[in-house]
């Protein structure tokens, strides 16, 4: 029979680990004091007030046409795209869009 020889165990890598006590302490950042609601409100700029219709600029011809097309689509959608007439929707949309701006000529682009 073969002689029983003890097998050598594989060497484990020995890493030198520093003890936690010798590690330099890490400073935690100091939390800034919380702002009160009044202080936060004072720093927040007020939202811009909506412009009155009389001070709005008229859109140029291309923008006006796009606005009318979108409005006409929504008018058709409101009635479920059933019945009605696309010309009637377009004319109603033109009237609505033109009512959103002051009277006068459209802006020139």
Structural category is mainly alpha
Kindly report the average pLDDT value: 74
The total of helices stands at 3
Oligomer status: single chain
Biggest pleated sheet: none
Helix content: 25-40%
Number of strands: 0
Gyration radius, in Å: 38 Å
Percentage of residues in DSSP E strands? under 5%
Keyphrases for this structure?
109 residues; mainly alpha; 3 helices; 36% helix; elongated; DUF2934; DUF2934 domain-containing protein
Q: If you had to describe this structure to a student in words, what would you say it looks like?
A:
There is one protein chain. The protein contains three helices and no strands. By secondary structure, the chain is mainly α. It has a domain of 46 residues. Helix 2 packs across helix 3. It is elongated. 5% of the residues are buried.
Give the arrangement of secondary structure elements:
Blueprint: H1 37-43, H2 61-78, H3 86-99
Helix pairs in contact: 2-3
Task: Summarize it.
With 109 residues, the protein is an all-alpha fold.
